[in-house]
From TrEMBL:
Transmembrane segments: none annotated. It comes from Chara braunii (Braun's stonewort). Its cofactor is Mg(2+). Gene3D superfamilies: HAD superfamily/HAD-like (3.40.50.1000). This is Uncharacterized protein. The keyword Hydrolase applies. GO terms for molecular function: metal ion binding; phosphatase activity. It holds the Pfam family Put_Phosphatase. Keywords: Hydrolase, Magnesium, Metal-binding.
């Protein structure tokens, strides 16, 4: 698994157009056929039986990392963490008033503005980091992530409308950076004035065509890209989410995939039930309220108790 430990923030970001070439390389000495995928970050291989293969590619000499047959995709706010990292930081550090402008701007733009306001009010990047380190990943969520990350054939991605700096900081503090193969989110960087700048994942001059997603990010397109580039042909996706932005990817999932949708005040579950009633949902729908439910549900789905 390609972990994220020690990587710079920029390398966490996968753009929608990551080019991955697939080619068959014939038989390996062990008699199994390998599927080679040359990506921007790693080479990947899997034998014909679906078992994962990890060795050195004879031609390129580079490490071969297996194509996962199960890709687990987490939303971040209110899913991997039990809160909203954006509003937490903004409120904790004293720019709550900026959130009152939320109807006038897109979310990414609003966060970019809030970060400028925080800097103007004397808050530093270290203040933001200190605040983010207080965000907990619940123990049962953390256990589930670690267990899946350690399972051969599994790969974990985060698809989030937060930003790269916030997510990497929380993952690092939770000791989970190594468990996550890729984070697909709005890119953030610190400018020369010490302001955290947040940019839209989807470039403004290259809009996506999805009508149900916000202009800065279509999670459905990202998940489709993950399936194409980072999942075995007959592999499955397990998607965990809570919000409206998670609807689009869930509607694109296939039979054999699974959705963990959060119940309670969160809109995704209701939206999916309506879709299910119309016969428009192919993936298995599982509801959850707490991290303990997620651990239990994943255990049942993946046979952890056996
Ligand atoms: Mg969420
Ligand atoms: Zn979409």
């Amino acid at each position: 698994m390609a972990g994220l430990a020690g990587t710079e923030i920029d390398t966490l970001i996968f753009v929608p157009t990551v080019a991955v070439a697939v080619a068959m390389t014939g038989s390996s000495p062990g008699g199994s056929e390998k599927k080679m995928v040359a990506g921007t970050t790693a080479n990947i291989a899997q034998d014909a039986t679906g078992a994962v293969v990890s060795d050195i590619d004879e031609d390129t000499g580079s490490a071969v990392i297996p194509v996962p047959d199960t890709v687990v995709i987490f939303d971040f706010d209110w899913t991997m963490i039990d809160g909203n990292s954006d509003t937490f930081v903004v409120k904790q550090l004293g720019a709550k008033d900026v959130l009152e402008e939320r109807d006038k701007f897109g979310w990414t733009q609003l966060m970019d503005m809030a970060m400028k306001v925080l800097r103007a009010r004397g808050k530093t990047i270290e203040d933001i980091r200190t605040c983010l380190r207080r965000i907990e990943v619940k123990p049962a969520m953390s256990r589930s992530i670690r267990k899946m990350a350690a399972t051969p054939g599994f790969e974990i991605h985060i698809v989030s409308d937060a930003n790269s700096m916030f997510i990497s900081c929380v993952l690092e503090a939770a000791g989970l950076s190594d468990c996550i193969s890729a984070v697909h989110t709005n890119p953030a960087h610190v400018d020369e004035a010490g302001v955290l700048r947040v940019e839209p994942y989807q470039p403004v001059d290259n809009p996506h065509s999805c009508s149900i997603c916000p202009s800065n990010m279509c999670k459905g397109l990202i998940v489709a890209g993950i399936r194409e580039n980072r999942c075995a042909k007959d592999g499955r996706i397990i998607y965990l989410g809570d919000g409206k932005g998670d609807l689009c990817p869930c509607l694109r999932l296939h039979e054999g995939d699974a959705i963990f949708a959060r119940k309670g005040k969160f809109p995704l579950l209701q939206l999916l039930r309506e879709e299910e009633g119309r016969g428009g949902l192919k993936a298995k729908l599982i509801s959850w309220a707490s991290a303990d439910d997620v651990e239990l549900g994943l255990g049942l789905l993946l046979g952890w108790d056996k």
